[in-house]
Design brief:
7 strands, 2 domains, alpha+beta, FGD2 protein, guanyl-nucleotide exchange factor activity, about 15% strand, Dbl Homology Domain, Chain A, cytoplasm, 8 helices
């Protein structure tokens, strides 16, 4: 007899979970444990660094190995008399918030591996040694570490599929739909963490390009747009190349530096957005021009 579609998906969930637990075992019980052992014994790498690389992987591993996987296995063994997984996934969902921390830390972790591999040859050798083992399947530590980042979106996809294939009268319909809603919220939560991390990362790069003027560096700022602009000088009818950074709260009017020591730009003027006025000009000689005025002065600018 043909297996019902929803059972196939539930089985796929179980199989991928088994593989995932093996991957978590490798990260926590092999990489983390062995690097930690060496860190405690020698001068290879500080213990703190190893902890920072692996974040809360141990909690994630324990949760999946001791709770979620066994529950799923029981469900699938019982499938013929009790075809449901929705309730188990509802129990899983709140724990997936643990991933927020891991996901937020991911870029930092990868950077630490790179930095310490250069600093400490024994550290690099131990990682290379573990990577040669059969269990690593010729993949790097970084590659294995990406797996938890991708797991929640995978749950979401499988569960969406599962709900779609459930017969209308299935006893699991209510639970499965509720579970999907919960997973969706968690996925959104961890995406928000990634987006926030990327925003701060990009902001930091912009601050470095500006030479880190103290009063400009503020983590709550949001960069909206940046780009080159021509400043029109009405005195001698000429234009000169300038650069604008528009944040949610201020416009920075900058001059590109000829000699780039550290910073690319020098901030010539800051205009606060709440007191800023922008007016378009219809200038025959200079198309695409507009006036930007702040409290101190007004600039006549020409866009491309």
């Amino acid at each position: 007899i043909q297996e019902p579609e929803e059972k196939k998906i539930a089985l796929e969930l179980l199989e991928t979970e088994q593989a995932y637990v093996n991957r978590l075992h490798l990260l926590d019980q092999v990489f983390y444990t062995e690097l930690m052992r060496e860190a405690k014994n020698g001068k290879m790498v500080p213990e703190e660094v190893v902890k920072m690389i692996f974040s809360n992987i141990s909690s994630i591993y324990q949760f999946h190995a001791k709770f979620f996987l066994p529950e799923l296995q029981r469900r699938m063994e019982d499938w013929s008399c009790n075809p449901r997984i929705g309730d188990v996934i509802q129990k899983l969902a709140p724990f997936l918030k643990m991933y927020g921390e891991y996901v937020k830390n991911f870029d930092k972790a990868v950077e630490l591996i790179t930095v310490w591999s250069e600093k400490s040859p024994p550290f690099q050798e131990l990682i290379a040694d573990i990577q040669k083992r059969k269990v690593c399947a010729n993949l790097t530590l970084q590659h294995h570490m990406l797996e938890p980042v991708q797991r929640i979106p995978r749950y979401e996809l499988l569960l969406k599929d599962y709900v779609r294939k459930l017969p209308p009268k299935s006893p699991d319909r209510d639970d499965a739909e509720k579970a999907l809603e919960m997973i969706f919220m968690v996925a959104k939560h961890s995406n928000a963490a990634i987006a926030e991390m990327e925003r701060l990362q990009n902001l930091w790069v912009v601050y470095q390009r500006l030479g880190l003027e103290d009063d400009i560096v503020d983590p709550s700022n949001e960069l909206i747009k940046e780009g080159p602009i021509q400043k029109i000088s009405t005195r001698n009818n000429s234009t000169s190349e300038k650069y604008l950074f528009l944040f949610n709260n201020m416009l920075l009017y900058c001059v590109p530096k000829v000699i780039q020591m550290g910073a690319e730009f020098q901030v010539h003027l800051r205009i606060n957005v709440d007191s800023m006025k922008v007016r378009e000009l219809n200038d025959e000689q200079f198309p695409h021009t507009f006036l930007v005025s702040g409290k101190q002065r007004t600039l006549e600018l020409q866009a491309r």
